[in-house]
Amino acid sequence: MTDAADVQATIEELWVYPVKSCAGVRLDEAELTDTGLLYDRAWMVVDAQGEFVSQRELPRMALIQPTFKMGQLVLRAPGMLALHLQLDAVEGPLKVRVWNDEVEAWDMGDLAAQWFSDFLGADAPASLKQLRLARFDPEVKRPSDPKWTGGREAGTQFADGFALLVTSTASLDELNERLVAGGHPKVDQRRVRPNIVLGGVQSHDEDRVGALRIETAAGAAVIEPVKPCARCPIPDVNPDTAETGTAVNDTLRTYRADPRVNGGLTFGMNAIVLEGDGQVLRVGQRVSAGWRFD
């Protein structure tokens, strides 16, 4: 990266996804931690063997909408009474698996398990009829792949592999232009599930920058994009209906095959936290970075 701040941007949107693979919460401000934004992917739905499940297997997870209210995580879904979970409460130990990582976590109890099983189980395969809700244990370290972090220590909670996902408004605008040209409707940021959306940059500039310096009230927070985000079928799940399609990935295939991840279709950059644990990120804050020269 060069010394000069070649790129000037702003934070245009902030998102957290409290329960992995359920709907997100758009925020005006969010606390940054070493493992990402506070409460992002802090909970995760698992099967009877403790293996995580996602919209890949259960698209109806997209219809579960979390909100934060008075020290609680409140979950709502069509046809269901709201589930209220205390942010600081768990019920017992639980071993879970997310991708290749087996970690000690916490179980959120039988009421939460029944709620998720009732809403998601009706159309689920037999192996996914009985579900439980796990809470990440902050005492547990789940490191990101050192191949991409340059050997630096960096961690995450139940996200796929990295603390943050950074995209830009311009990148989504380009995708939508291509979707419309192909006869498909536009999509919004919910399809690509970012944590930080940058404004004031060109399409996919997030692919090409080094460490992002964010000016907060308490100083500077620094995050670094390290790995292109290879996309699975989730961007083709309609967040309003849970219906699945192919238009988004079919469109990405025409211009976003990325040799850095063996030809995977990429959109956005996975990022790690270098500085700023405990600082508050807000929409509108200035972001600066230099170009990365690999």
Describe the overall structure.
The chain is mainly beta and 294 residues long. The protein has a seven-stranded mixed beta barrel with strand order 1-13-12-17-15-14-19. Strands 5-11-10-9 form a four-stranded antiparallel sheet. It has one domain: PK beta-barrel domain-like (M1 Pyruvate Kinase, Domain 3), CATH 2.40.33. The longest helix is centred in the middle third of the chain and has 13 residues. Helices cover 12% and strands 35% of the residues. The model has no long low-confidence stretch (mean pLDDT 96). It is globular. The relative contact order is 0.21. The protein has four helices and 19 strands.
